TrEMBL record:
Pfam families per record: Inositol_P
Record protein name field: 3'(2'),5'-bisphosphate nucleotidase CysQ
Function comment: Converts adenosine-3',5'-bisphosphate (PAP) to AMP.
Species assigned in the record: Pseudovibrio ascidiaceicola
Residues binding Mg(2+) 1: E62, D81, L83
Membrane topology: Peripheral membrane protein
Named cofactor requirement(s): Mg(2+)
Length: 269
């Protein structure tokens, strides 16, 4: 299945890159978030792939959800974000991705993330490892296994480039001996997975399709994504505090869970 996810992500990414280079206009969805033709066409490509690859597995996709299309899900379903980082896409900084993930029993087990501008493909299967490869067109280079870094003296922190609240800033101020870098989209999970960063706190709203592929890859590389209290970020949340299905609570993504105890972050964010 993950090979099919990779091909779908690559083809969607190539279409996104074409629109990125040609020029485009953005619109605003009902929830106030931006959308472009790239989001829509990429999702169509991915859904076409998945209808052949795994026709019996329900798919929750961002743009379909925005249009009111929500299939019933069970213990196994797929989450699709055809263009994660639409604001980054519009601002043309290159930090946007294609995300596809398989959810099993409430947890992401397989995930693929493709960054069209940098030509980086990341994938992970929990329990079987996480990998990165360079891409040219639809051709993959050598797969390199990724592994999270162990917690060291200086904490390398990633914070959202386009979504950073006062609550996040207050948490960042508590982190002694840390350096902070702004980054966009689900690439933050990938940087943790490949050992280039240690910590990504997220106090602002996200949806399950924003995080599932990144969580699968990070966990496959030895990291974790936890909510307040220490439990892993779970999926298939049809009823949430935010009042809409598939909304996430605040979470902390870490390369090494020792970070949580070192900074006293199990609760009270």
């Amino acid at each position: 299945m993950i090979e099919g996810f990779k091909l779908a992500a690559l083809e969607a990414g190539q279409r996104i890159l074409g629109i990125y280079e040609e020029g485009f206009q953005s619109e605003t969805k009902g929830d106030g978030s931006p959308v472009t033709i790239a989001d829509q066409q990429a999702e169509e490509i991915i859904l076409n792939h998945l209808s052949t690859l795994c026709p019996d597995v329900p798919v929750i996709a961002e743009e379909a959800m925005a249009a009111g299309i929500m299939p019933e899900i069970g213990s196994r379903f797929i989450l699709v974000d055809p263009l994660d980082g639409t604001r980054e896409f519009i601002s043309r900084n290159g930090e946007f991705t294609v995300n596809i993930a398989l959810i099993e029993n409430g947890m992401p087990t397989k995930g693929v993330i493709f960054a069209p501008v940098t030509g980086e493909l990341f994938w992970g299967h929990v329990g079987q490892g996480a990998y990165r490869a360079e891409v040219k067109g639809l051709e993959l280079g050598e797969a390199v296994e990724m592994s999270c870094s162990a917690f060291a003296e200086e904490l390398r922190v990633l914070a959202s480039r386009s979504h950073r609240s006062e609550r996040t800033n207050a948490l960042l101020e508590k982190l002694e001996n840390s350096s902070i870098v702004a980054a966009g989209s689900s690439l933050k999970f990938c940087r943790l997975a490949e050992g280039k960063a240690d910590f990504y706190p997220r106090m602002e709203p996200t949806m399950e399709w924003d995080t599932a592929a990144g969580q699968a890859i990070l966990c496959a590389a030895g990291g974790a994504v936890i909510v307040e209290g220490g439990a892993p970020l779970a999926y298939g949340k049809l009823k949430t505090l935010q009042g809409k299905p598939f909304a996430n609570p605040c979470f902390l993504a870490v390369a090494d869970e020792k970070i949580i105890s070192h900074y006293g972050l199990r609760s009270g964010w």
